[in-house]
């Protein structure tokens, strides 16, 4: 009997972003054995990451830590230790996650975050690749509708103003922010580039505002998919429709580069969400399918909603299955 040998390979998926939404999708893609590269923002200046950045001149490690844990094959006990955050009454280490301290230490040992994360990826038995968007810490800057400018992620989201545009500068002086060649190569050779889910102005756009990253996302032959947020965010996307999210992305890069948008159409039950616990989220994003089509986007709408702990999340498994399906399609079908 003749055996038929196929040259099947898993589609190459590059996911760009940061924040709490990114690991949810990565965990589900990991379960599907996808060929994953995560490009993670390095412009965070809040929480444990911000404190470490203030005292140690390294890229803030929090988002990178969560992505490493999502793609790791270590036993759960080891991951629990890596993710452990000291209690607030431990004054010296209050609020710090052990993984953040490990990443900061390796960054000093390896003279940079990129090599540190590659070393840690081996130690943690990572499937795929985790790439910091830049080897240097970046500062997020914003221009507001009232004409004012503010620097720093926490300051921007806490300003209570409408953001018009954002950009990044190096925390190391006049050096121009750039991504290492591995990041650019991953984007250019991908089958699909995924943006989000995550905060539009503070998790997704900081990556795209690194000039060679933005250029690569516009020039890649891969289809570019945006996973639209389910809820609007205080200080960022108040009153935004799904089309306005995409419009902001396109305006920042000066081109209609988003090919496909994943939109949740399942309503969030009234009074389900705990707005004290999840105080940054406001109301459900409204749909503007006509506006999305005017932006040359294909829209995939479905029930992508996951309700958990009185919070609203994407159903990682449903999104991952949809992304894997899209990644298996020829790019010329979309672009």
TrEMBL record:
Keyword set, alphabetical order: Cytoplasm
InterPro entries: CofD, CofD-like_dom_sf, Gluconeogen_factor
Entry's Gene Ontology cellular component terms: cytoplasm
Main location: cytoplasm
SUPFAM superfamilies: CofD-like (SSF142338)
Family matches, as PANTHER family: GLUCONEOGENESIS FACTOR-RELATED (PTHR30135:SF3), UNCHARACTERIZED PROTEIN YVCK-RELATED (PTHR30135)
Origin species: Loigolactobacillus backii
Name of protein: Putative gluconeogenesis factor
Role according to the record: Required for morphogenesis under gluconeogenic growth conditions.
Lineage, top ranks: Bacteria, Bacillati, Bacillota, Bacilli, Lactobacillales
């Amino acid at each position: 009997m003749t055996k038929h040998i196929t040259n099947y390979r898993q589609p190459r998926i590059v996911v760009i972003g940061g924040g709490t939404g990114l690991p949810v999708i990565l965990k589900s893609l990991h379960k599907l054995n996808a060929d994953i590269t995560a490009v993670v923002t390095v412009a965070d200046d809040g929480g444990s990451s911000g404190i470490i950045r203030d005292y140690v001149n390294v890229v803030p490690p929090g988002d990178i830590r969560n992505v490493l844990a999502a793609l790791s094959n270590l036993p759960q006990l080891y991951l629990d230790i890596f993710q452990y955050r000291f209690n607030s009454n431990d004054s010296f280490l209050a609020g710090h996650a052990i993984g953040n301290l490990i990443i900061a230490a390796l960054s000093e040992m390896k003279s940079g975050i990129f090599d540190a994360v590659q070393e840690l990826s081996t130690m943690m038995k990572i499937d795929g690749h985790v790439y910091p968007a830049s080897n240097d810490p970046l500062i997020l800057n914003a221009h507001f509708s009232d004409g004012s400018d503010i620097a720093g992620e926490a300051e921007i989201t806490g300003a209570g103003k409408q953001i018009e545009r954002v950009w990044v500068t190096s925390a190391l002086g006049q050096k121009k922010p750039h991504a290492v060649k591995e990041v650019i190569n991953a984007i250019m050779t991908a089958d699909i580039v995924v943006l989000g889910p995550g905060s539009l102005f503070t998790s997704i756009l900081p990556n795209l505002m690194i000039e060679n990253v933005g250029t690569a996302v516009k020039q890649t032959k891969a289809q570019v998919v945006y996973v639209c947020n389910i809820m609007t965010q205080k200080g960022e996307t108040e009153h935004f429709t799904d089309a306005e999210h995409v419009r902001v992305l396109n305006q920042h890069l000066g081109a209609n580069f988003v090919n496909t948008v994943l939109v949740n159409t399942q309503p969030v039950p009234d009074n389900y969400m705990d707005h004290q616990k999840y105080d940054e989220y406001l109301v459900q994003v409204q749909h503007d399918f006509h506006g999305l089509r005017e932006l040359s986007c294909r829209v995939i709408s479905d029930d992508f909603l996951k309700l958990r702990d009185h919070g609203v999340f994407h159903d990682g498994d449903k999104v991952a299955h949809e992304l894997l399906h899209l990644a298996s399609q020829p790019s010329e079908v979309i672009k």
